Amino acid sequence: MKRRNFLKASALTLASPLLASGDQKVKRNTQNPIVISTWNHGIPANEVSAEILHAGGSALDAVEAGVRVTEADAQNQSVGLGGRPDRKGIVTLDASIMDSQGNAGSVAFLQNIKHPISVARLVMEKTDHVMLAGQGALEFAKEQGFEEENLLTEQSAVGWEEWKRNNNIKDTWGPNDDHDTITSLAQDKNGNIAAACTTSGLAYKLHGRVGDSPIIGAGMFVDNEIGAAGATGVGELVMRTCGSFLVVELMRQGLSPMEACNEAVERIIKKEGKNTKSQVGYIALRKDGEIGYASIHKGFQYALYKNKKNKLYDVPSKL
Ligand code: SD4
């Protein structure tokens, strides 16, 4: 093949799959709000998001309001108030948010603020930055009017004491063990997509540990031309594979949301081996409203609001 023809041919093979989902072949869903969230706490979160979407609100407002329900729920021990603490007994929170324009905001290692997702949104909207961490994030939150409060509930303190007594220091987490972040993806009546992710991270983690949830492209990612994806589970495995970004990019290359989630999980299994005890789950939402999901182990669930129904579904395991 002549050099010029070869270049032309390779450009075509590269370009066509890259455009597959971004072009007209995948039609944008409008007028039919959709929300997909991780785990069973996704149900009450979706309820709130759906109300906003049906009233004509934006996907961004919907995901923020939805995950705030989980953040405020003291019974939920993996997000916001009542989250399980780190090894030092301190609750540290990670959160991120992304809108349909590709704007993003996040906070990491934030303490004493119940709604990290709203702080993340203000980082996105009021600063030139994407991410604030630790003390700086706390100072920013306070400047924005957030009040400090103790997030360690009695229930979580008792769990931590018990964990210390058993000297149960472990560096891997089993399937669905001590982690269940909320990640939420929504599409509004205009067909625009946004995502939010918020967590207290892995229980009894090292002090200072930050997971995937505040990392754009790991915990969640939105490309309005294609769709969105979000993660839950052991963040280290998600970060090492740029999980949510990968799912969206695979959809861009023409994989269905389900195929994309499966491939992202398979890549983790390939690296970790089939004996891995760690759990990771993905959810995805393409711009035509089609969803995808996959997880390494059984136990992962997602809550889907679609066609005015809000239901919880089990995700089959890969292993
Ligand atoms: C983390 N991905 O901090 C979070 C925890 C989580 O389900 O999602 N648990 O690694």
Explain what you see.
- Helix content is 34%, strand content 22%.
- The chain has helices at residues 3-19, 42-54, 59-72, 116-126, 134-143, 154-165, 235-240, 243-252, 257-272; strands at 34-38, 93-98, 104-110, 131-133, 182-187, 193-199, 220-223, 227-233, 280-286, 291-295, 301-306, 309-314.
- Mean pLDDT is 91; it is low at 1-16.
- Helix 2 runs antiparallel to helix 3.
- It has an eight-stranded mixed β-sheet. It has a four-stranded antiparallel β-sheet with strand order 7-8-9-10.
- It has 319 residues and is of the alpha+beta class.
- It starts with a helix and ends in a 5-residue tail after the last strand.
- It has a single domain (25-314), classed as Glutamine Phosphoribosylpyrophosphate, subunit 1, domain 1 (4-Layer Sandwich).
- The longest helix has 17 residues, at 3-19.
Describe the structure concisely:
The protein has 319 residues and is α+β, with helices and mostly antiparallel strands. The protein contains nine helices and twelve strands. The protein has one domain (25-314): (Glycosyl)asparaginase (Glutamine Phosphoribosylpyrophosphate, subunit 1, domain 1).
Key phrases:
Glutamine Phosphoribosylpyrophosphate, subunit 1, domain 1, four-stranded antiparallel β-sheet, 12 strands, 22% strand, binds N-hydroxy-L-asparagine, eight-stranded mixed β-sheet, disordered N terminus, 9 helices, alpha+beta, globular, 319 residues
